[in-house]
């Protein structure tokens, strides 16, 4: 993370560049730095990049879920005075972006999802991290990527710290359950926002057929694949990710 974060009211966020706002939503175990390559590229290409920190661990437990985060996001968009936004979300961030699109279509210029939850969760449920087992956590983190080397010690340490913090673990499980509850299959056919779907061909968390289902169910979507790539394409294949998204935005005159 090379940029200074700003704080305004209850929101902490990164903001860089000028132009149409691309509001980026990180995943459950993700951070703002996951989007460094996207930030650098698009903030110099006529877009304003804005990445709010999502209150994953600070909401009251009863409110910890996809719907509340979507409303939090809309409060943020209103605070910033954005009339229209492009939302880009990875994993849980994609799910929040989808739910926000369902609730507030009028502010949506376009939607971009990559490795998004919302239709299928090979969720944390069945084998969620054993607390205290560093090697297990390391393996889980590596499984997110096609190339396990992308799971740096810093990334593994962050996940390890999260699952060994009782409060964070309880919130993480609540979010996972909320993601399963808020399945979007019935909603997608009514969501007419232009959508770009960018997916790793080797995603183990949300497998390729999930991307195909999103593409079938959304009325106005385009699906792009990145080979030799796992669940976080913008981290693992940043150049290809940026090229695909740039080309798509150009093709849609956005």
TrEMBL record:
One of its GO terms (cellular component) is membrane. InterPro entries: AB_hydrolase_1, AB_hydrolase_fold, AB_hydrolase_sf. Residues 21-238 form the AB hydrolase-1 domain. Coiled coil: none annotated. Pfam families: Abhydrolase_1. This is Pimeloyl-ACP methyl ester carboxylesterase. It comes from Leeuwenhoekiella marinoflava. The lineage of its organism: Bacteria, Pseudomonadati, Bacteroidota, Flavobacteriia, Flavobacteriales.
